[in-house]
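Tokens as discussed.
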């Protein structure tokens, strides 16, 4: 599930421009806090709840929206720094299969390739090629890293650039980020210190994975 270093191509540069322009629009339309279930699924609302509960322990953090295949990066005060499309685990689900981190990738079935949901204490790390990554769940071998493009048939850069989220499910569980976005936002926020990543679930309500929300969001 580890990434390999790749030079951003035309698709990556176009994606970076798209993200920058979209961020301006996103920042200008921040909704007011709401205790409804739909609001709890909004990464920006969740970020405000995180800071209000001091759940991030004054550390920068990221929110991964699996339903919309996006990652949002916030500073320690909950201010949005940037967002980007991401690639996620092929299979739908919010839990990692027990012991999956100890298996060879060739022995992982398609239905086991999930990106787990919940609150994760992150730490910087390196893969077997020596490239820097951010560990989400070390035991399950789930990390956030630059998009992997070794298998050209998977068309990962094209999937990231596509307006559809249906084709963003391809990884073994790791969160693949455009290289330009990783270097500009992920690495400064999470690549040199411990942080927190909140992965929104897709099969259960957010309060079932984030205790700080409490039952009031139902």
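Sequence:
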């Amino acid at each position: 599930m580890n990434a390999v270093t790749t030079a951003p191509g035309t698709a990556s540069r176009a994606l970076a421009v798209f993200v920058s322009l979209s961020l301006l629009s996103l920042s200008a339309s921040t909704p007011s806090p709401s205790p409804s279930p739909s609001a709890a699924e909004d990464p920006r609302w969740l970020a405000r709840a995180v800071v209000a509960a001091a759940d991030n322990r004054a550390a920068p953090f990221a929110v991964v929206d699996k339903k919309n295949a996006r990652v949002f990066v916030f500073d320690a005060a909950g201010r949005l720094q940037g967002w980007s499309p991401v690639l996620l685990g092929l299979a739908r689900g919010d839990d990692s299969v027990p012991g999956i981190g100890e298996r060879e990738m060739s022995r992982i079935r398609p239905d086991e390739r999930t990106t787990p949901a919940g609150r994760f204490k992150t730490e910087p790390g390196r893969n077997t090629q020596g490239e820097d990554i951010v560990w989400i769940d070390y035991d399950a071998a789930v990390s956030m890293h630059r998009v992997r493009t070794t298998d050209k048939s998977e068309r990962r850069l094209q999937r990231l650039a596509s307006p559809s989220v249906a084709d963003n499910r391809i990884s073994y569980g790791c969160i693949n980020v455009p290289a330009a976005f990783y270097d500009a936002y992920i690495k400064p926020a999470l690549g040199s210190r411990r942080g927190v990543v909140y992965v929104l679930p897709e099969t259960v309500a957010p309060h079932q994975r984030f205790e700080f929300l409490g039952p009031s969001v139902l």
